[in-house]
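Structure (tokenized):
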């Protein structure tokens, strides 16, 4: 079951996932959107340093108010480069990104290098939206390159964007299969250590509250696909032991305590607590499970994020408001799909998300 990490979905007792399990009498595998978790980290830091939200598209603090304006019209000044972890992407991959995603990547690279070209500096950035923080990240970077003496708060925010937010955004997109979820979380923990302590103090509790991918079920799913035999053997042992436990009711999905000093993704939690097997693997026979020790298991590539479905839901909602009738709605959606995507591949991905949404509705 894929969803974002809001309480209505993931509440331990009354969330949609939990209620679904209770109704069916069987646990489901929770695929909680990692892109949503990445947004929550940025939101927490922005509202702490840049001012709280004052509306759906505005903030109370000076940084938030500046970001709400046409920041791309400000002149670029001589600014100090900010070392970051933005990956070096091939041109073909960059072309697959949406307009706002491309601009975020280019601005992050410019902030790290200490130089931004006029074309990138002058590009318009999408509007602020408290449901989508990528454009705010881009606006923070553009504000930085046009600020003569950036405040400590702005410097902290920019450091976070280029050292954590942007690297994690692309890490999640490039490693979107469910067996990579725990590895992605581990990378987030590692990148967190590179931030100033004041930023870590704000973000650490957010990562803990959204540590769904540190659950033993998620870790074991990653471990059975690991290239190291010792890791797979450990996973088989834990799953075997979990199968021996007699459970009279569906287990509650409880986020474990995340080990922020972990040196590998398998150390993200203490294995002394209650361990439950991944629901995705519960149909594996004993012999099939034992075979995992000899060869990594291939699991279905369920995504670690629900971005495509969320976009489809938004587009379906807009179409229902704008036009009447199935054919008109389909034409409205197809038109906007083609207009908002730059490549056939990305359009097909959007349409796949739309089809999944239609089926669910």
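Design, position by position:
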């Amino acid at each position: 079951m894929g969803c974002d990490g809001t309480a209505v979905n993931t509440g331990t007792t009354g969330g949609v996932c939990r209620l679904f399990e209770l109704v069916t009498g069987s646990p489901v595998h929770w695929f909680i959107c990692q892109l949503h978790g990445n947004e929550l980290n940025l939101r927490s830091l922005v509202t702490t340093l840049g001012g709280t939200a004052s509306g759906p598209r505005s903030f109370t603090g000076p940084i938030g108010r500046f970001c709400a304006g046409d920041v791309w019209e400000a002149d670029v000044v001589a600014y100090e480069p900010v070392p970051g972890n933005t990956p070096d992407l091939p041109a073909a991959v960059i072309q697959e990104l949406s307009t706002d995603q491309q601009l975020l990547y280019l601005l992050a690279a410019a902030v790290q290098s200490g130089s931004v070209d006029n074309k990138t500096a002058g590009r318009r950035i999408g509007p602020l939206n408290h449901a989508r923080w990528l454009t705010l990240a881009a606006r923070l970077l553009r504000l930085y390159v046009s600020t003569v003496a950036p405040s400590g708060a702005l410097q902290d925010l920019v450091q976070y964007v280029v050292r954590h937010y942007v690297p994690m955004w692309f890490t999640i997109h490039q490693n979107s299969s469910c067996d990579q979820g725990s590895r992605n979380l581990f990378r987030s923990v590692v990148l967190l250590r590179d931030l100033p302590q004041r930023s870590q103090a704000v973000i650490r509790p957010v990562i803990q509250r959204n540590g769904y991918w540190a659950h033993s079920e998620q870790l074991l799913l990653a471990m059975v696909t690991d290239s190291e035999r010792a890791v797979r053997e450990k996973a088989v042992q834990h799953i075997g032991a979990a199968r021996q436990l007699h459970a009279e009711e569906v287990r509650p999905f409880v986020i474990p305590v995340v080990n922020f000093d972990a040196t590998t993704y398998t150390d993200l939690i203490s294995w002394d607590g209650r361990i439950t097997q991944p629901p995705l693997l519960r149909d594996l026979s004993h012999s099939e499970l034992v075979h995992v020790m000899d060869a990594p298991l291939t699991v279905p590539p369920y995504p670690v994020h629900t971005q495509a479905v969320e976009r489809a839901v938004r587009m379906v909602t807009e179409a229902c408001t704008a036009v009447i009738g199935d054919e008109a709605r389909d034409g409205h959606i197809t038109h906007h799909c083609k207009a908002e995507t730059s490549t056939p591949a990305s359009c097909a991905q959007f349409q796949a998300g739309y089809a999944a949404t239609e089926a669910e509705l």
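Reviewer-requested clarification: The beta strands are 2-3, 31-32, 53-55, 58-59. Residues 35-174 form one domain.
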